C-alpha cells in the first residue's frame, strides 16, 4: 500500500517520565491508537480525540494536541477540504461522519436574546413561587365545549373529548437514537431517565429492546422507512408513535447501520439477520405523497385504537412550513422538526454539512404557517437539532416550539466527546458501539443519573428564565416572540424569525 | 398601518354594578376614582357606562376619537357604507382647565345594513383582518363568520388599523366609553358623566411610565359591549396577541389590555364558554392544585389549560370587565395587583382600594379581598332587562 497523503489530525503526547506503564490507556482506547513496546507508543493517525486515555490515565501523563502541521494559509482551500480530497482520492468513496453539522454557519440562537422584567411588571422568584413547565404532547381542539352539571364541586363539566395527550413535566424530551447506533446501556439510561424525569425518550428506528418494556409510558417508538422492529407489540409498548420521514443530519437520505454493529441483540430487536448492514431506504416505499402519509398515520392510529398520539418527524428543509401544514392536515398529532445541526450515528459528511436549514428558522416558519392557517392547536411542535443549553431551549420555545428534543446533549451528558466517529462502532465511551468490552464501560445507573441531572439542571434554569420574564407557566413563553430580540440580524432574518431588533 | 408604542403602566380601577339594572348617575364612579388619585399620574383616565343610551339600546354605539377632520371624513364615509347611521353627534363635553389637546369626539348610533351582513355571510374568508392586504381592501367586507357581531368586530378593527387618526373608543349597544389624557376625575368632569345614568360603571386612573399624550391609550379598552379596565401588565402579551391573530383579532393598539377584551369576546361569545369557565382559562389554577383533583372540575381545568394555554393571562393584573349582563373582577393567579370587593343591597363594588368603595358606600354589608385567580362575577338577576 502506498503511503497515505493525509496528515494526522491529532498528536498523542506522552510524558514518559511521569508514565508508570500501567497500560490503562491502551485498554481504554477504542480506536487502537496505543501500543506498548518498551514504552507506550501511539499511532497518531488513528487518534480521534475521544479523550478516553487522558481521562483515565492515573498520572495525567497522556494528552492530545491538534497537529500543528501548517498548510500554506488559503482562505478558500482550508485544510479540511484539502484532507477530504486526499481521502477520496485514496478511497473513491463517500466520506462518512457522525454527530451533527460542525460548520460555522450563522447560529441564530446566538443572535437572539431574551427579555426580563424591571419595575412595571415584577419578576417572579422561582424559589418562592410555583413555576410550571408542564407540557402536554398531543393534538388539541381549537375550543372546548362545556356542559352544565350540578355537583358539589362546581356547575360545569368538560363535554369535549380530548384526543390522547402525554403529560411531560418538562418541555424537554430525548431525541430519537436507535439501539444499534447506540448501545443498550445508553438506550436503557435514556428510558430510565425519561421515566424518572416525567418525560419521553425516543427509540429511533432500531426497535425496542425487551429490557425497555417497563418504561413504555415514557417511550416514543419510531416507525422509519426500514420498519425495523415494528410489530403490534412494539406499537403497544409505547406512549406515542413517530413516523420518521427525515433526520436533520441527513435530510432526504436513508439510514445506515454497519453490519459490525448488528450483533445478536441488535439483530433480534431490529428483526434482521445478525452481521448484515441495516439499510433503511431514503423514502418510505409506501409513502410517495401526503395522502400516503395520512394513510400510514391512520393505520397506526387504528392499530393502537386511537389511544396514543401519532406524529411525524421531518428534517428542516426549505419548505418545511408547507410540509408541516400538510402533516397537520394529514391527521398527525405532532410534528417533529429536526434542524441541520441535529446529530446522527452515521451520515455522508457532504449531506450533513450542506443540506437542510437552521432549526431556528424552521420553527419560526412552521409556527407562523400553522397560525396563519388557524391549525396551530392541531399539532404539538417538537423542535430538535443541536440545543446546547437551556438558553437555546427557551429561545426555541419563544419562537414557537411546544417541546424540544435533545440528542447530542444527552450523549454528552453520558460522556460523549463529540469525536464524530460514531459510525465506526468504536466509541470508547461505550455509547455508539456494540463491542462488548466497550459497551460494558457505560454504567446504565450512572448514565441515568447524569441524564436526570442534566434535565433537572436545564429545567431549573428554564424556571429562572420564566421568573425573570415575569411569567409562571411555560405556555406564556411559548410562541411569545415579543420576549425575544435580535442582535446582528438583517431585516429579512428578523422578519422570518418574527422578532424585533434589540433596542426596539 | 398604525403603530403605537407599548407603554407599561400602573393604575387604579373601580366598578359599581346594580343587579336590578337600576340606573344611577355617573357621579358615583367619579367620586370613587377620585379618592385613588395617587394611583394615577394624570396621563390617562376613563369610564365605561352601561345602560346609558336606553333610547338607542338596539344600536351599536360607536364612540370615535379623531385626530383631525380628514380622519373623521374618511371614517364617516366608511361607516355610511356598512351601517345605517341612526344618529351622529359630537360627544358632549365641557371646557376643563386641566384637559387639553382634545381630539374630535363623536358618537354614532348604528345599525348594520342587512345587505352587508348577507354578503359578509356569503363570502368565505379570503383575507382576515390580520392579513396585510386587508388595508387595501378597506372597501370590501370579508370574513368567515356569520354573526352580525363578528361583522362589527371586523369593522372596528379595520377602522383602528387602517384609518389614520381614527380610533374607536367603544362599539357596544347601550354603553359607551369616555376616556382621555388627564386625571380620571378631570376626565369625568370634562365628559359630564354625572349627566348619564347607567346600571354599571367602571373607571380607570392610569400611571403610564412615559408620555404618549394619546387619548386612545387610556382605559377602558373595548370590543362590542366588553370593556376592560386593567391595573397591571400582561407579561404574556406576546403570545396572547399571536393567539388572537389566529382568530382574526388584530391587536392594533400595542397595549396588553386590548388582548383581555378580545379574549373575553373569543372565549365567551365565540367559543361559548361560560364566564366562570372563561376566567378559569385566563387565570387557571396551578397544576399542583389540580393534581389529585380527579373530579369534573379538575378535568375541566386541566383540559382548559391544555387547549387555552396561549390565552393564559400571565403577569400582574387586576381587572374589572364590564358587559351588558354584568361585571367580572379577576386577578392574576398569584395576585400581584390589588382588588377589593364590596356588597350592599343590589350593589356590587370592585376597586383597587377599599377606600374607593367606602367613599360611595360607607357601610357595605360585606367587604372582602378577591382571591388570586378566583373571579367575582356579578350578573343581572334573572328576568331583569337592562
Ligand atoms: S494510562 Fe497513563 S500512566 Fe498508564 S500507561 Fe497510559 S500514559 Fe502511562
Ligand atoms: S458517541 Fe462516542 S463515537 Fe460518537 S462522538 Fe460521542 S464519543 Fe465519539
Walk me through this protein's architecture.
- The complex is a heterodimer of chains A (about 500) and B (about 375).
- Chain A has about 500 residues and is an alpha/beta fold.
- Chain A has helices spanning about 25-30, 50-55, 80-90, 185-195, 230-235, 265-270, 290-305, 320-330, 350-355, 360-370, 390-400, 410-415, 435-440, 445-470, 490-495; strands at about 10-15, 35, 40, 60-65, 95, 110-115, 135, 145-150, 155-160, 165-170, 170-175, 200, 220-225, 240-245, 255, 280, 310-315, 335-340, 345-350, 380-385, 405, 485, 500.
- In chain A, the strands form 8 sheets. Chain A has an 8-stranded parallel sheet with strand order 11-21-20-18-17-14-13-12.
- In chain A, helix 8 crosses helix 10.
- The mean pLDDT of chain A is about 95.
- Chain B is built from 11 helices and 18 strands.
- The model of chain B is unreliable at about 120-145 (pLDDT under 50).
- The longest helix of chain B is centred in the middle third of the chain and has 15 residues, at about 150-160.
- With about 375 residues, chain B is an alpha+beta fold.
- Chain B is globular.
- Chain B has a 7-stranded antiparallel sheet with strand order 8-3-10-1-16-15-17, covered by helices on one side. Chain B has a 5-stranded antiparallel sheet with strand order 11-12-13-14-18, covered by helices on one side. In chain B, strands 5-6-4-7 form a 4-stranded antiparallel sheet.
- In chain B, a hairpin with a 2-residue loop joins strand 13 (about 315-325) and strand 14 (about 325-330).
- At the A-B interface, strand 8 and strand 9 of A face helix 6 and helix 10 of B.
- The complex binds iron/sulfur cluster (2 copies).
Features:
heterodimer; A: alpha/beta; 8-stranded parallel sheet; 3-stranded mixed sheet; 15 helices; globular; B: 386 residues; alpha+beta; 7-stranded antiparallel sheet; 11 helices; 28% helix
Amino acid at each position: 500500500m502506498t503511503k497515505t497523503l493525509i496528515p494526522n489530525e491529532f498528536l498523542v503526547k506522552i510524558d514518559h517520565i511521569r508514565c508508570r506503564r500501567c497500560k490503562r490507556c491502551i485498554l481504554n482506547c477504542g480506536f487502537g491508537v496505543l501500543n506498548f513496546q518498551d514504552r507506550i507508543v501511539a499511532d497518531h493517525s488513528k487518534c480521534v480525540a475521544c479523550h478516553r486515555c487522558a481521562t483515565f490515565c492515573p498520572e495525567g501523563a497522556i494528552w492530545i494536541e491538534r497537529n500543528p502541521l501548517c498548510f500554506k494559509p488559503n482562505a478558500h482551500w482550508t485544510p479540511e477540504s484539502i484532507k477530504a480530497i486526499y481521502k477520496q482520492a485514496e478511497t473513491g468513496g463517500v466520506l462518512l461522519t457522525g454527530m451533527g453539522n460542525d460548520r460555522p454557519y450563522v447560529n441564530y440562537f446566538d443572535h437572539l436574546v431574551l427579555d426580563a422584567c424591571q419595575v412595571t411588571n415584577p419578576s417572579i422568584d422561582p424559589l418562592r413561587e410555583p413555576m410550571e413547565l408542564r407540557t402536554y404532547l398531543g393534538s388539541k381542539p381549537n375550543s372546548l365545549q362545556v356542559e352544565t352539571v350540578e355537583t358539589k364541586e362546581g356547575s360545569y363539566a368538560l363535554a369535549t373529548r380530548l384526543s390522547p395527550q402525554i403529560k411531560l413535566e418538562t418541555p424537554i424530551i430525548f431525541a430519537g437514537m436507535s439501539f444499534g447506533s447506540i448501545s443498550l446501556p445508553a438506550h436503557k439510561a435514556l428510558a430510565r431517565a425519561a421515566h424518572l424525569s416525567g418525560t419521553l425518550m425516543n427509540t429511533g428506528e432500531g426497535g425496542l429492546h425487551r429490557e425497555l418494556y417497563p418504561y413504555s409510558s415514557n417511550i416514543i417508538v419510531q416507525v422509519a422507512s426500514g420498519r425495523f422492529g415494528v410489530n403490534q407489540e412494539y406499537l403497544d409498548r409505547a406512549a406515542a408513535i413517530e413516523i420518521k420521514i427525515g433526520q436533520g443530519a441527513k435530510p432526504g437520505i436513508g439510514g445506515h447501520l454497519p453490519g459490525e454493529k448488528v450483533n445478536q441483540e441488535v439483530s433480534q430487536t431490529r428483526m434482521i439477520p445478525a452481521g448484515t448492514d441495516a439499510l433503511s431506504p431514503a423514502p418510505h416505499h409506501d409513502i410517495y405523497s401526503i395522502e400516503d402519509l395520512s394513510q400510514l398515520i391512520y393505520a397506526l392510529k387504528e392499530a393502537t385504537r386511537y389511544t396514543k398520539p401519532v406524529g411525524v418527524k421531518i428534517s428542516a428543509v426549505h419548505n418545511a412550513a408547507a410540509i408541516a401544514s400538510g402533516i397537520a392536515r394529514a391527521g398527525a398529532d405532532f410534528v417533529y422538526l429536526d434542524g441541520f445541526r441535529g446529530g446522527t450515528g452515521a451520515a455522508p459528511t457532504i449531506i450533513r454539512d450542506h443540506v437542510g436549514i437552521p432549526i431556528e428558522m424552521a420553527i419560526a416558519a412552521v409556527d407562523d404557517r400553522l397560525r396563519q392557517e388557524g391549525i396551530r392547536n392541531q399539532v404539538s411542535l417538537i423542535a430538535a437539532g443541536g440545543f446546547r443549553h437551556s438558553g437555546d431551549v427557551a429561545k426555541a420555545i419563544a419562537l414557537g416550539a411546544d417541546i424540544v428534543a435533545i440528542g447530542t446533549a444527552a450523549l454528552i451528558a453520558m460522556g460523549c466527546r463529540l469525536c464524530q466517529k460514531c459510525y465506526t462502532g468504536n466509541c470508547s465511551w461505550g455509547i455508539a458501539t456494540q463491542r462488548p468490552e466497550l459497551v460494558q464501560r457505560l454504567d446504565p445507573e450512572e448514565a441515568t443519573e447524569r441524564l436526570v441531572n442534566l434535565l433537572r439542571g436545564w429545567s431549573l434554569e428554564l424556571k429562572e428564565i420564566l421568573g425573570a420574564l415575569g411569567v409562571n407557566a411555560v405556555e406564556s413563553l411559548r410562541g411569545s416572540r415579543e420576549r425575544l430580540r435580535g442582535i446582528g440580524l438583517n431585516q429579512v432574518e428578523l422578519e422570518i424569525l418574527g422578532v424585533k431588533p434589540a433596542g426596539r | 398601518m398604525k403603530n403605537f408604542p407599548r407603554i407599561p403602566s400602573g393604575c387604579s380601577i373601580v366598578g359599581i354594578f346594580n343587579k336590578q339594572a337600576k340606573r344611577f348617575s355617573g357621579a358615583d364612579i367619579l367620586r370613587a376614582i377620585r379618592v385613588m388619585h395617587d394611583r394615577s399620574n394624570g396621563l390617562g383616565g376613563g369610564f365605561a357606562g352601561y345602560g346609558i343610551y336606553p333610547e338607542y339600546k338596539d344600536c351599536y354605539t360607536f364612540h370615535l376619537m379623531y385626530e383631525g377632520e380628514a380622519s373623521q371624513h374618511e371614517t364617516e364615509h366608511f361607516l355610511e357604507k356598512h351601517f345605517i347611521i341612526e344618529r351622529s353627534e359630537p360627544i358632549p363635553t365641557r371646557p376643563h382647565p386641566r384637559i387639553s389637546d382634545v381630539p374630535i369626539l363623536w358618537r354614532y348610533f348604528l345599525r348594520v345594513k342587512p345587505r352587508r351582513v348577507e354578503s359578509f355571510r356569503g363570502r368565505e374568508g379570503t383575507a382576515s383582518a390580520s392579513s396585510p392586504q386587508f388595508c387595501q381592501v378597506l372597501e370590501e367586507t370579508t370574513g368567515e363568520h356569520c354573526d352580525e357581531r363578528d361583522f362589527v368586530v371586523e369593522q372596528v378593527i379595520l377602522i383602528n388599523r387602517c384609518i389614520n387618526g381614527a380610533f374607536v373608543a367603544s362599539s357596544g349597544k347601550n354603553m359607551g366609553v369616555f376616556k382621555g389624557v388627564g386625571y380620571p376625575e378631570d376626565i369625568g368632569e370634562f365628559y359630564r358623566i354625572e349627566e348619564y345614568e347607567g346600571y354599571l360603571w367602571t373607571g380607570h386612573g392610569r400611571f403610564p411610565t412615559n408620555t404618549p399624550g394619546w387619548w386612545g391609550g387610556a382605559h377602558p379598552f373595548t370590543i362590542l359591549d366588553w370593556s376592560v379596565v386593567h391595573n397591571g401588565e400582561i407579561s404574556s402579551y406576546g403570545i396572547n396577541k399571536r393567539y388572537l391573530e389566529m382568530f382574526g383579532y388584530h391587536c392594533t393598539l400595542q397595549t396588553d389590555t386590548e388582548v383581555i377584551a378580545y379574549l373575553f369576546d373569543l372565549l365567551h361569545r365565540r367559543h361559548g364558554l361560560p364566564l366562570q369557565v372563561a376566567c378559569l382559562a385566563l387565570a387557571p389554577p396551578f397544576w399542583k392544585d389540580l393534581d389529585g383533583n380527579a373530579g369534573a372540575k379538575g378535568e375541566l381545568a386541566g383540559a382548559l389549560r391544555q387547549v387555552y394555554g396561549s390565552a393564559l393571562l400571565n403577569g400582574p393584573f387586576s381587572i374589572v370587565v364590564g358587559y351588558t349582563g354584568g361585571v367580572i373582577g379577576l386577578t392574576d393567579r398569584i395576585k400581584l395587583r390589588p382588588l377589593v370587593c364590596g356588597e350592599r343591597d343590589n350593589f356590587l363594588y370592585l376597586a383597587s382600594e377599599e377606600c374607593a368603595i367606602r367613599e360611595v358606600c360607607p357601610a357595605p354589608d360585606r367587604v372582602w379581598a378577591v382571591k388570586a385567580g378566583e373571579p367575582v362575577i356579578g350578573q343581572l338577576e334573572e328576568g331583569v332587562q337592562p
